[in-house]
Amino acid sequence: MLSPGKIYSSLILIFFISAGIALSSCSKKSISVTDTRIALGSYVQITIITSTDNTTKTHDIIETAYKKINILGKDFNYRDEIGSLSLFNSSQHILKKNNELLFSLIVDSISLAKLTNGYFDPTILPLVQLWCFDTDNPVLPHEAEIKDTLKLIGHNKVRVMGDRIIKPLSVKFDLSGIAKGKIVDLIRDYLRSRGYHNFLINAGGDIYVSGTTKDKTKWRIAIQDPVHEDRYSGVVEKINAAIVTSGDYEQFFIEGGVKYCHLFNPKTGYPFSDIKSVTIIADDTTFADAVATAVFSMGSKEGFSFLTRNNIQGFIIYSKDNNKIETKSTPHFW
């Protein structure tokens, strides 16, 4: 848990505008079965559209999904001392045959680091630990400490060689900027493999919507206003899409009147950006998760240019020099 009074966290970045998010049976033919639990350091919600005679099986499928989430969460978490990622961080290589899912996630993270020119970098763990953002009491490091720590960071120090990934022992992975997205995609694939095609998964703001609601309409997702907690900045209507938001209101601390959030620029070592929040829409939650993290670090000008060049749907809320809040959205976002 984050310390009250010093760290502030918004666990759910996007909330839903939809009738029937809870178990309901307005129609005998189509109902929504939903469950929300604490997992992956946040609230995870799964809503499945099914028939009235299939609720028991659906509850069982959701139960299995949460078990998978917990297992994957441990494997992808560097804090778990016996987890696969922690073991990789303590060594210089990982073999695909030892953990294919983690291997795939690391490969994805390196690929997305290259795409974003290092603004998303999975080797950022030494910086996270320097700032103590993995504890209840983050601190502002000295500039010299930040410069020294930056020497340990760099996805270009990692080599993917067939079924083996090698790295220097000093390089440590933190997959927090992509792991939730990957887990959402894996649960999406699991639900579809069990015959479900209309559902919603929300892992603390990493969202995937499949098919339609019980009313046969698109899923309506409201984007949180990063400045006013009781407001939203807009609503998107989607089917078969990932919607992911990253913002400076998730985790932060204030020191000397300056706000420091948990989203670092891997090039400078500091968490400064004029962006308040960025929302990405894509086919896969893994991709959207990493890109949202990267664009936040880029800042509004470079971030919007990156989205436009790469034909990625995005919505940026940012603060101008006069503290006025402005927004930018790419074509076809809304």
- The proportion of residues forming helix, as a percent range, comes to 25-40%
| CATH top level assignment of the domain at 14-56 and 198-329 | Alpha Beta
Poorly predicted regions: 1-27
Strand count, sense and barrel status of the largest sheet are: 8 strands, antiparallel
Order of helices and strands: EEEHHEHHHEEHEEEEEEEEHHEE
Provide the structure class: alpha+beta
**Strand percent estimate:** 25-35%
Key features of this structure:
single chain; 334 residues; alpha+beta; T-fold; eight-stranded antiparallel beta sheet; three-stranded antiparallel beta sheet; 26% strand; globular
Account of the 3D structure:
With 334 residues, the chain is α+β, with helices and mostly antiparallel strands. Helices cover 29% and strands 26% of the residues. The protein contains eight helices and 16 strands. The strands form four sheets. Strands 2-3-7-8-11-14-15-16 form an eight-stranded antiparallel β-sheet, with helices on one face. β2 and β3 (42-50) form a beta hairpin. α3 runs parallel beside α7. The longest helix has 21 residues, at 55-75. The chain is globular. The two termini are 35 Å apart.
Tell me the layout of helices and strands.
Blueprint: E1 14-16, E2 31-39, E3 42-50, H1 55-75, H2 84-89, E4 93-95, H3 100-115, H4 125-130, H5 143-150, E5 159-161, E6 164-166, H6 179-193, E7 199-203, E8 206-210, E9 219-224, E10 232-238, E11 241-247, E12 252-255, E13 258-261, E14 275-282, H7 285-298, H8 300-309, E15 313-319, E16 325-329
Antiparallel strand pairs: 1-9, 2-3, 3-7, 4-6, 5-6, 7-8, 8-11, 9-10, 11-14, 12-13, 14-15, 15-16
Helix pairs in contact: 1-6, 3-7, 6-7, 7-8
